[in-house]
Every structure is written in structure tokens, then in C-alpha cells.
Amino acid sequence: MPDWKRLVRKRTRSLSLSPAAKEKVIIELSDHLEEAYESARGQGLDERASMRHALQEVGGWSVLLAEIGGTRSEEGSMNHRTKSLWLPALITLLGASLSLTLTQFLGPQPRLVWIGRLGMTFYWPWLASLPFFGAAGAYLSRRAQGPTRVRLAAGLSPALIMLIVMCLILPWGLAIDGLHFLRLVAFGLGLITWVAIPGFALLIGAVPFLRESEPTAHTIV
Amino acid sequence: MPTTKRIRSKIARGSADLAILSLLAEQPLYGFEIAKQIGERTGGALKFTLASLYPLLYEMEAQGWVEAHWQANAAGRDRRYYRLTTTGRRQLAPLREEWRSFFRALDALAGVSHA
Q1: What are A21-51's pLDDT values in tens digits?
Q2: Å from B34 to nearest chain A CA?
Q3: Closest chain A residue to B102 measured between Cα atoms?
Q4: Whether residue A198 sits in one domain with residue A94
Q5: Distance to chain A for B85, nearest Cα, Å
Q6: In angstroms, what CA-CA distances link A24 with A4, A8, A56, A64, B58?
Q7: A189 in the same domain as A92
Q8: For chain A, which has fewer Cβ within 10 Å, the N-terminal or C-terminal residue?
Q9: 0.90 surpassed by complex ipTM
């Protein structure tokens, strides 16, 4: 019985993958060859013919190595989740943050809405720009074949991150100042100003990209 | 001719996606079994080598269409089983439709019936 693992290890020496990833590939490929060999033996072929039959299954070591190297290295540097969620979310977040900074420095004064002693600050030009960033996030995620919920998360990422930040801040505020009704109201108003309304604006932009894309025409070139 | 080769490889590549996803939609399978079943069920018309099968499986895994897990068989040999994910399942319907319309178009043009 040939040592398939040894043979595959030798043939894949030039494969540039991490040792762990390479070992998995070696195990999988040698298992395939071993089974092809055993199947040929089961059909009555002698050892030599069975080995030749199994090796024909490879379809060219150089092609195999080039193809696996290509797909696995892409996977290593940027996996599906990175392409469909983290990268679109980061771009959306950076875009929305930059837009807010520019609005604060260059735009008109924010509109303050007073509710009792508490004020809500609205940067209208910033809010108006958010649908574009929501659209960009969802579009980039769809292009990377992210499922609907991932596209939604990518498009709404600035609002979701703000929600997480506020939820982390609240317990600290309560621990320092104690539980005050006014603080809870301020938290609620903060949620509306920085999470709900921006989230809605982002959602407007993201919605067209939440549906599955239409199948494209055949490109035979 | 290089162009012909490219057309052939594109068609083969597209059909390979559909073949693998359709098989995995039925049940999780490991590499050898995928190649074997495709060969048997197409009467040998479609044949996968290691060089055509595994890069495709790894790419599908990277795209989130399939998930892989190691499972030992009765003999204690580790096998890497591939399972279709929800994302992969969603790819299947448009891919089938794409091939249907491709065959319809080809049939209208060249009288190549797929039925």
C-alpha cells in the first residue's frame, strides 16, 4: 500500500500555506487518493495499475498547487466574513464619522431640540448624508455575497456601534451617579439622537441592497 | 484555440458550481464521494480531478457557500465533510435558473435541447 500522505506532502512542498492549513490539505488530498486506489483495487486492478489510476485523479500537480495556493491564500488574508461584513462595516463607519466631523467643522450650527432640561442635538447635513453610507455598506456586503442580515449589519454599522458604546457607558454612569430618572431619560434621548434616527437614515440607503441580486447574463468570453 | 479553451473552461466551471451545490443540497459529502457521485450520476460526462474539485470546494468555503468539518469514519480515518450553508442554498436557485435560461437560449439558437 503506497504511503499517500508522504507522496502528497512531497508533491505539495512548494505550496505556500500556513503549516496547519497545509497539513489539512495534505490529509484531505491523500485521503482522496487512498480511496481512489482502494476503489481501483476493489475493481480487481493490481497494485501498479491501481496506483496509476489514483494518480490520474490528480489532474496535474502544478495546476492543483496553483489553484489551491490561490484560493487558500485569499482565504487566509481576507475570509468571507471580512469581505462581506467587517470591511463594508468599517468603510460605512469611517464614511459616517468623516461626514459628522466635516459637518461639525464646516456645516451649519446643529439644531437643538429641548425636552424639559435635556437637549437633543441634530446635525441635519450629517443625517442627510447617512443613506449614502448605509447604501455603500449594504452594497459592498452584497457584492461580497453577504446574506441579508450581514448586509443589514454592514449598512447600519455606525448606529449599531453607537448602540454598543452607549450600552457600555450607561452602567458606568449609573455606577457613578446612581440611578436617576433624569439620567435614564437622557440615555433614552441619546438613543433616539445617535442610534434610532441615524439608524433609520442608514436603513433608507441600505434597503435597496437587501434583496438578492438578479442573476446576471451569461458572459462567455 | 485559446478563446475556445476559455469558453470551455467557463462553462465547465459554471457547471461545476451547480453540480457540487446540487449534490451538497441533498446531504453532506466528502471530496472523494462528491467526485464519485458526480461521475456516476452524469454517466461519466462530468469528471472531477483533485485539481478541479478541491480548489473549487475551498473557494466555496471561503465564500461561505459550504462549511467543512472533520469526521472520522468507522475505520477511524478522518474525512472532511462539506455541508451546504444557507448562503450556498440561496446561490442554488439563481444558478439553476441561469443554466435553464442558458440551455433555452442555446436551444433557440442551435436546436440543442436539454430535455
Answers
A1: 888 899 999 999 999 999 999 999 999 999 9
A2: 11
A3: A218
A4: yes
A5: 11
A6: 14, 11, 22, 15, 12
A7: yes
A8: C
A9: no
